[in-house]
Amino acid sequence: MKQFPKRDTDKLAADLAEIVGTDNVRRREAEILTYARDATPMFWAKPQVVVFPQNTSHVSAIAAYATANEVPLIPRGSGTSLAAATVPIHGGIVMPMTRFTGVLSIDTAEQVAVVQPGVRTLDLSNAVEAVGLMYPPDPGSRHACTIGGNVATNAGGLRGLKYGVTGDYILGLEIVLPTGEIIRTGGTLKKDVAGYDLTHLIVGSEGTLA
Questions:
Q1: Could you tell me the sign of the dihedral formed by the alpha carbons of 144, 186, 59, 93, in that order?
Q2: Minimum mean pLDDT among 14-18, 83-87, 113-117, 190-194: which range?
Q3: CA–CA separation, 187 vs 63, rounded Å?
Q4: Domains plus CATH for the chain?
Q5: Which of 78, 92, 146, 182 is least buried, going by the fewest C-beta atoms within 10 A?
């Protein structure tokens, strides 16, 4: 298991505040305890700092900083994981994506929606149903879990046997790599066969690649 160097929490918080602003960094005990666990029983570990990015550029800068300084970085959705996926067992930074909640567009002709990672699965389902469409994946935690988490885990649900799982409905992604590089994979076309299928390499990778 990788051993991370000791980190000064004051400096870590100050450095992150330079990226996202002081109001978007949390480090007090009462503020970070919420992010010390997810829905997994018995797993618990406090982060040093919780940081709330406001845009993709913030996510990119945080990822680049964490990599350069060997600080563990845990992106987090709603914390519904049952596999301790968002428990910061090495401390470091927890980065909730809760400010990214937009359903940016729904194209009824092409049957394609563009959404941000913090959108709740149930909210997306309701949004497309309102225009006569259906988003089939239905994880048991769909009332709380987010699309970003669904993509990371390739979540399914009871309808998975008939309709498939999250990865069957992802056409493209905007991805931030650990280096901070932002890349885009796939697109809005259902038939997009140019190059490697990086989109579905990322789906289900649980934060190990991006």
A1: positive
A2: 190-194
A3: 24
A4: 9-96 (3.30.43.10), 103-202 (3.30.465.10)
A5: 182
